Amino acid sequence: MKKLQFYLSGFLALQLVLAAGLFWREHRQQELQQQSEPLLALQQEQLQRLEISADDNSVTLQKNAGEWQLPELHSLPVDAAKLDGLLDKLAEMRSGWPVATTSSARERFEVGEEKFQKRLRLYSDGEVVAEFFIGTSPGFRWVHLRRAGDDAIYAVELNSYEMPAKGEEWLDKKLLAAGEPESISGPDYQLRKVDGEWQFVAGDGELDVDKARELASAFSGLRIQKPAEEMPEAEPLEIRVATGGGELSYQFLRADEKYFVRRSDREQLFELSRYDYERIADLRRPQLVRTSEAEGESQQTAEGSEENEEATKS
């Protein structure tokens, strides 16, 4: 009996110690949270320029007339959603408790002036207002970070891949997407949407509506890869697309197993994937006409539906 009381007393004491430890930990976390401060004490609207460096690569993002652009890449527009995501993450970073403060730790965590994985500089009114060194990762979606001029090294919730140091990776890849097409004029066909349904403007044959929708979707989701380095020697294929905002003319080119596209409102020629090229530029009227086989399948489907309805009624 005494032995049982001894064990129970020991168990109770252990519970009290654990409870006290948890209380202290929670209290300490709340205290640190109250003492922490934003690592970037700047409103996003005040930012005018970002510079990201990594190894031998670097990229500059510049705000002009309210639009973020890539000045070193023909001043093409930045992917706004991607940039907003990074700026939101930077705004949420707080100091907390540093994981290290020594100069040797800078080398170990790769957040030194000479040895770093990424360096991020932010400008406002032409001056550097914040500079961060991004280093190794202590865990999934976390990195070690140090502010320039500060010894403290923090672990913050951030992904290194969210800060690419190449302009092509910041480029708005949907720059030439057509929105919602209302008519499409190709090499040997003209399509128009009437009352929400696609149809041929003229000519014989019944339109395969599904293929017309796929073509319209290809224009709506068209993605470029990067600016072309030079103009290929190839005959362009022109396709005109009308939307609620007006008519756009696309030129598609193929040369040396590479695929290119240009739109009438921009001079720049871009590379695009073979997949996007083929599902737009290789399409001709015979492929848009509903075949007898497709009609037969459609008729069989309709007959099957009618039989099912009659069987249900009976």
Automatic annotation (TrEMBL):
Segments of skewed composition (Acidic residues): 304-314
Species of provenance: Microbulbifer rhizosphaerae
Entry protein name: DUF4340 domain-containing protein
Domain DUF4340 residues, every copy: 68-228
Region (Disordered): 286-314
